[in-house]
Amino acid sequence: MIALHNITKSYQVEAMSIPVLKGISLKVDKGEFLAIMGPSGSGKSTLLNIIGCLDAVDTGSYRLDAEMIAGASEDRLADIRSRKLGFVFQLFNLIPRVDALRNVELPLIYAGVAPKLRRERAMAMLQAVGMADRAAHTPAQLSGGQQQRVAIARALVNQPDVLIADEPTGSLDSKAGHDILRLFDQLNAQGLTIVMVTHEEDVAAHASRTLRLRDGVIERDECNQRLARVH
User: Fold this and answer.
1) How far apart (Å, rounded) are the C-alpha atoms in residues 91 and 71?
2) Mean pLDDT, to the nearest integer, of 195-205?
3) Count of H-run helices and E-run strands, the chain
4) Given 4, 58, 143, 190, which residue has the most CB atoms within 10 angstroms?
5) What are the backbone angles phi and psi of residue 127, rounded to the nearest 5°?
6) For residue 15, pLDDT beyond 90
7) Is residue 220 pLDDT above 60, yes or no?
């Protein structure tokens, strides 16, 4: 599903070029659940942004579902993000003035889906994440865990191939975080590929594999026993 070969990425700060990723090669199979960990400045967020087609590589190659990403135009990248990728962020990024149903509908509006069909699909996805009874509630009327479930429904409504999650439990209490991870477990068991950045070992334990970065290189790439999974 995901294949990166010898990826490098630097950022320009005034007259200095700061290397962030230094020759990353990585493959993620369809249906895998990968956690990316590392200390601050290790390059994990940059790597996630590249996998999510939000940032471009300097050198190297990236294929997503056999499609070459490196060098693609901005319009092409936007189309790929819309069709193949769903995003979940630490801070939910819901539109505060509209209800949960409308928030989940938003990607379908951009995709040009007819109003009746997009409402049906959005409600079905809210049902799938246990939030159908909160469809008419705005984000301010929802708990953090409920907002993250709505954000997950929005990420999945276009039926992406890969779910990209950046610290998805970082703003949640332990119970809400546990509930979100249990939902991730269920989605992965249904075949969804998940790539997640986290700094918490117990969160990473839900993944089938953990990639540990340090100073822009892969320090360790290890399979997990997934003993911490709870169903």
Assistant:
1) 30
2) 94
3) 7, 10
4) 4
5) -60, -40
6) no
7) yes
Write down the pLDDT at residue 225. Answer: 75
Q: What is the largest CA-CA distance in the chain?
A: 54
Q: Assess contact for 199 and 167: CB atoms under 8 A.
A: yes
Return the DSSP state at 34.
E
Cβ atoms within 10 Å, residue 224: 17
Q: Would you give the DSSP letter of residue 165? A: E
What is the residue-wise DSSP string for 48-93? HHHHTTSS--SEEEEEETTEE-TT--HHHHHHHHHHHEEEEETT--
Task: Report pLDDT digits (tens) over 130-144.
Answer: 999 999 999 999 999
Structure tokens at 34: 């990968």
- Residue 49 structure tokens: 């942004």
Mean pLDDT value across the chain = 92
Q: Which residues pair with 89 in a beta bridge?
A: 166
Report the alpha-carbon distance of residue 226 to residue 210 in Å, rounded: 11
Residues 6 or more apart in contact with residue 100 via CB below 8 angstroms: 94, 126, 131, 134, 135, 136, 137, 138, 139, 142, 150, 153
Domains of the chain, each with CATH number or no CATH: 29-54+74-223 (3.40.50.300)
